[in-house]
User: Which sequence fits this backbone?
């Protein structure tokens, strides 16, 4: 479990009784955010594809739901694909029917392939665009009517600040386009929905986070050991979601910066390897 941010450093109280809907969330950062909210007694609806165990990935939408309920929240697992408009509509409708509304939309689902352009199969390119960009837009869009009725509505997208430094633009072009597309969606929605009082922000980790994506695709356990746990992103997300929506919107922020603003000074507790200070900086960050 993560270390709770104290009430003295958190801008608002908690997420008790709030309803979050999230794409993905069977494992990793998404599940971490869901569990942090569940500790307040939040309701969490998960739209995720993993109904059966994967040979290389721990967890399913159903095991995640059990963990959320064990942590103190209410869970609604919905098997579906964020690329499918009907699945998105069903997940939103079920969340509203079960919990009475939606307070928070978390765009967590993401596909990654860091192949160079000539080596990137167009089917993989399309997959990243469909899940990362279209999925973010689709779920956010479906939630807007319900967010308008919430008391402190937030859209939170797990994507990086748009870094136009040439050395980043020239790396992983296909993946970069999809992740920056998510961030531009977050920033665009912030402006479009400003008068409605719906906040939209993007959040990204300062360091590598020890997830299955890092272990399987980005260098294995050795690199994961030089990163941080999912709890740092979960705590940063929690801080953002408790901030007043009309006052805190249109930002693409880093987890560490959010927590520093909240008064957190001890980041060693989030390290995968205790005592290790030379951590690997995440992709797209200088």
Assistant:
């Amino acid at each position: 479990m993560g270390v709770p941010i104290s009430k003295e450093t958190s801008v608002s109280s908690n997420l008790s009784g709030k309803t979050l809907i999230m794409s993905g969330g069977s494992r990793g950062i998404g599940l971490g955010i869901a569990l942090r909210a569940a500790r307040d007694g939040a309701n969490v609806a998960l739209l995720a594809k993993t109904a059966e165990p994967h040979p290389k990935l721990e967890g399913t939408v159903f095991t995640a739901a059990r963990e959320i309920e064990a942590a103190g929240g209410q869970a609604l697992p919905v098997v579906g694909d964020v690329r499918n408009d009907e699945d998105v509509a069903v997940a939103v409708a079920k969340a509203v029917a079960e919990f009475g509304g939606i307070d928070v939309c978390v765009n967590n689902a993401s596909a990654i392939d860091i192949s160079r352009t000539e080596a990137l199969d167009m089917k993989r390119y399309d997959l990243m665009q469909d899940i990362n960009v279209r999925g973010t837009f689709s779920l956010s869009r479906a939630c807007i009517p319900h967010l308008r009725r919430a008391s402190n509505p937030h859209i939170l997208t797990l994507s990086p600040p748009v870094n136009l430094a040439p050395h980043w633009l020239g790396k992983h072009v296909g993946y970069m386009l999809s992740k920056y597309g998510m961030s531009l969606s977050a920033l665009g929605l912030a402006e479009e929905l400003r008068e409605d009082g719906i906040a939209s922000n993007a959040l990204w980790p300062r360091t590598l986070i020890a997830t299955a994506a890092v272990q399987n695709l980005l260098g294995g356990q050795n690199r994961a050991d030089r990163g941080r746990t999912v709890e740092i992103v979960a705590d940063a997300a929690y801080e953002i979601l408790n901030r007043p929506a009309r006052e805190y919107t249109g930002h693409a922020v880093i987890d560490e910066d959010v927590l520093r603003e909240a008064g957190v000074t001890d980041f060693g507790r989030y390290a995968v390897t205790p005592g290790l200070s030379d951590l690997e900086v995440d992709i797209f960050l200088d």
Notes: The two ends are 29 Å apart (CA to CA). The chain is about 40% helix and 10% strand.
